[in-house]
């Protein structure tokens, strides 16, 4: 064992290495809680999408109908009832059954597209009050969701095949 100034070099070197490692660890940027939560949500989102449907799923934004639309006719001709599981979408065919998932809490709902909404630059769906409550949207205004078209049932305006 080498001795320098009457001290053991090996033990001094070990103490220096431990101190250097501690300083390096303290200076290493730690992921913040928001970034970790976003990574967890994205991972959950990917798992949900892969297990949900063979149809293309899209991430989008969901809102819910205002109270003033209650009792009005929708694009499909049905009367809007807030207690039914229905929705408006700007491109999906009327009558399509859609699974809407809130990745923040993993709650989902199946809704029938029976109305149209204004086109947006991003995927968008407008839910009935009952559907909004089922996924935890009620009272929040808008949230990020996953929109998965499942099937299409014929509407009254389409001719049977």
Care to give the gist of this entry?
This protein has a domain of 98 residues: Beta Barrel (Barwin-like endoglucanases), CATH 2.40.40.10. It is 29% helix and 27% strand. The relative contact order is 0.19.
List the helices and strands and how they pair.
Blueprint: E1 3-4, E2 7-8, H1 9-27, H2 33-52, E3 58-64, E4 86-88, E5 96-102, E6 107-115, E7 124-127, H3 129-135, E8 143-152
Parallel strand pairs: 3-7, 4-6
Antiparallel strand pairs: 1-2, 3-8, 4-7, 5-6, 5-8
Could you explain how this protein is built, in words?
The protein is built from three helices and eight strands. It is of the alpha+beta class and 161 residues long. The protein has a domain at 55-152: Beta Barrel (Barwin-like endoglucanases), CATH 2.40.40.10. The longest helix is centred in the first third of the chain and has 20 residues, at 33-52. Residues 3-9 and 154-161 have low confidence and may be disordered.
Q: Which key terms come to mind for this protein?
A:
disordered N terminus; globular; 161 residues; 3 helices; Barwin-like endoglucanases; alpha+beta; 8 strands
């Amino acid at each position: 064992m080498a001795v320098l100034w009457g001290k053991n070099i090996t033990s001094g070197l070990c103490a220096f290495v431990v101190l250097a490692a501690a300083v390096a660890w303290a200076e290493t940027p730690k992921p913040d809680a928001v970034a970790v939560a976003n990574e967890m949500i994205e991972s959950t989102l990917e798992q949900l999408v892969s297990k949900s449907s063979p149809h293309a799923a899209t991430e989008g934004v969901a809102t819910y109908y205002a109270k003033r639309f209650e009792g009005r006719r929708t694009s499909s001709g049905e009367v809007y009832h807030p207690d039914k599981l229905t929705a408006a979408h700007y491109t999906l065919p009327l009558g399509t059954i859609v699974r809407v998932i809130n990745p923040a809490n993993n709650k989902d709902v199946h809704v029938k597209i029976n109305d149209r909404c204004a086109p947006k630059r991003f995927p968008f769906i407008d839910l009935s009050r009952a559907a909004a409550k089922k996924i935890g949207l009620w009272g929040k205004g808008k949230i990020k969701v996953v929109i998965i078209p499942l099937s299409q049932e014929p509407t009254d305006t389409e001719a049977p095949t």
